[in-house]
Amino acid sequence: VDVTGFVDNILPCFHKADTFVAPFRLARGVQNKVLQAAACRLPIVTTAMGAEGIAFASPSSMWIENNEDEFAQACIDTIENKTEASSKATSAYEAIRAEYSWEQQLKPLEVTLGSL
To answer: Around Cβ 57, how many Cβ atoms within 10 Å?
Structure first.
């Protein structure tokens, strides 16, 4: 575990990581970090608060655990079960590309502009 404190660019940290661990008990805006981890194809372990508002957050795309022991076990599972970790990371990555891409997000604007 590396605790870096503030960094100017988080992307290199994501690229060096094996798992993204987000034990949020209060989450206001930090879910963006979960989305960034998904975009980097990292296995994600988070709480319900960390998954809040993320349309694709489910057991098939990430570990969502609120119990401390289960949360810790999920972190261990990402290391011991690489196949499951990779499957969840791929599911989250595919979902973020489908649901959160610029193309997808701009579709309503294109429709509106096209109707003018």
So the answer is: 21
pTM assigned to the model:
0.84
Please classify residue 34 by burial: count the beta carbons closer than 10 Å to its beta carbon, then call 0-12 exposed, 13-18 middle and 19+ buried.
buried
Cβ neighbors of 113 (< 8 A, separation 6 or more) are none
Q: How many CA atoms lie within 13 A of 103 on its CB side?
A: 3
Concatenating the DSSP letter of every residue in 62-76 gives SEE--SHHHHHHHHH
Q: How confident is the model at residue 44 (pLDDT cuts 50, 70, 90)?
A: very high
Strand duo 20-22 + 44-46: pairing: parallel
